[in-house]
Amino acid sequence: MRTKVAIIGAGPAGLLLGQLLHTYGIDNVILEKHTADYVLARIRAGLLEEGTVGLLDQIGAGQRAHHEGLVHDGIELAFGGSRHRIDMKAFTGKTVMIYGQTEVTLDLMNARRAAGLTTVYEAADVTPLDFDTDHPRVTYVKDGATHAIACDFIAGCDGFHGISRASVKPPAIETFERVYPFGWLGILSDTPPVSHELIYSNHARGFALCTMRSRSRSRYYVQCALDDQVEQWPDDRFWDELRRRLDQKAADSLITGPSIEKSIAPLRSFVAEPMRFGRMFLAGDAAHIVPPTGAKGLNLAASDAHYLASALREYYDEKSSAGIDHYSETALARVWKAVRFSWWMTSILHKFPENGTIGARIQLAELDYVTRSKAAMTSLAENYVGLPF
Ligand code: APR
Ligand code: PHB
Residue with the nearest Cα to atom 7 of ligand 2? Predict the structure, then answer.
């Protein structure tokens, strides 16, 4: 088989890249390790920047998001027993949309199917080869047989644990990492959200987040110990802990019910540099991870896909390598700002026992400042709604 761009991974980064390339007339094949159902069963975050929604519109896959997504003008920060609203629309003119990553992935898969593009699911032993030459290839095993795809470029969109980044050895690649000393325990429940907008809560017992998937489905998170197991968190314990970390009004109006999903995720900041190795590019979680406090993971995957697709369009349409030569630098400039913002949101909202009581008081001072100063609110808002790309 031959294609222009062989994409490894059918998560949001790979699927969006594939559709953008298709709209530019650039053929591509996606190789995905798992089944489509497996990919769709992963529960991830669910907040889209306007720029991300714009990319879905660009490929003709935005209708359902516009119909079912919940548009939010602001968020609330809770600390010291009360809630403080940040009106992002007033400060930036922009909004964000609550629309689950699972739904985004489904819409992208449907668009790909409708366009008749090839996706090989359950492709085992996917291996990017010869990307430091003009003739890269990707090999994989399907139903016991080995196949090879000759291509012009390889796009490594295979997530944090993928093979693409792992195929590059130092000193060609440099990585930067911080692992946070806690995790997020998240649950999904078919109960109405406690509040119409998201509540990010700083509490002496630890961070809590109230978010949602729809008007009848809630998503809640509490900061937990890194070595906690979900079995230690029966629903009642979760609801009690969440209630204790919210302001009185929210605690009193919280509607609880059985969880339909419960999982613990570690928090990490990670960046790999560069994002291009000859004829192989990295995009999305394959290149960087941010803690979910800034809701940036999916949106960075989308901006990478946009930068890469534009660079490849320039290569094929204008016979110019300028875009692909600058891809890594351009993408990383935006990535690092989101890494900075996500780290900062994490640092002001979570309990860091190693920072002591002085650390906790400094957090409260910062939150007080951030919710009173116009300059600080504007800065938070413009990062939260997404920096331009
Ligand atoms: N071969 C083929 N496919 C692979 C391989 C491999 N060796 N390794 C991983 N994959 C697939 C995974 O099964 C997954 O479907 O690559 C895909 C990567 O998808 P994601 O992990 O969702 O990463 P990405 O597309 O970059 O999306 C980033 O996901 O983790 C969230 O918060 C993050 O929302 C952000 C988004
Ligand atoms: C979510 O809806 O799951 C979500 C929203 C905002 C975040 C993190 C997760 O910052």
Answer: 295
DSSP per-residue string spanning 115-143 = TT-EEE-S-EEEEEE-TTSSS-EEEEEET
- Cβ atoms of 45 and 98 within 8 Å: the answer is no
Model pLDDT for residues 231-285, shown as the tens digit of each residue: 999 999 999 999 999 999 999 999 999 999 999 999 999 999 999 999 999 999 9
Buried b (16+ CB within 10 A) or exposed e, 273-296: bbbbbebbbbbbbbbbbbbbbbbb
- Would you say the pTM of this structure is higher than 0.90? yes
Identify whether the C-beta of residue 256 lies closer than 8 Å to the C-beta of residue 239: yes
CA distances from 385 to 62, 76, 88, 301, 341 (A): 18, 14, 7, 15, 11
Please classify residue 20 by burial: count the beta carbons closer than 10 Å to its beta carbon, then call 0-12 exposed, 13-18 middle and 19+ buried: buried
DSSP state of 161: T
Span from the CA of 106 to the centroid of ligand 1 (angstroms): 14
Q: Is 200 a catalytic residue?
A: yes
Residue with structure tokens 């110990």?
225
- Centre a 10 Å sphere on the Cβ of residue 38 and count the other Cβ atoms it contains: 12
Q: Which domains does the chain have, with CATH numbers?
A: 2-70+97-177+268-346 (3.50.50.60), 181-267+351-385 (3.30.9.10)
Give the number of other CB atoms < 10 A from CB of residue 337: 14
Residue of 198, 210, 222 best suited for mutating to test ligand 2, as the one with most atoms within 8 Å of CB? 198
Report the first-to-last Cα separation within the chain, whole angstroms: 34
pLDDT tens digits, 178-194: 999 999 999 999 999 99
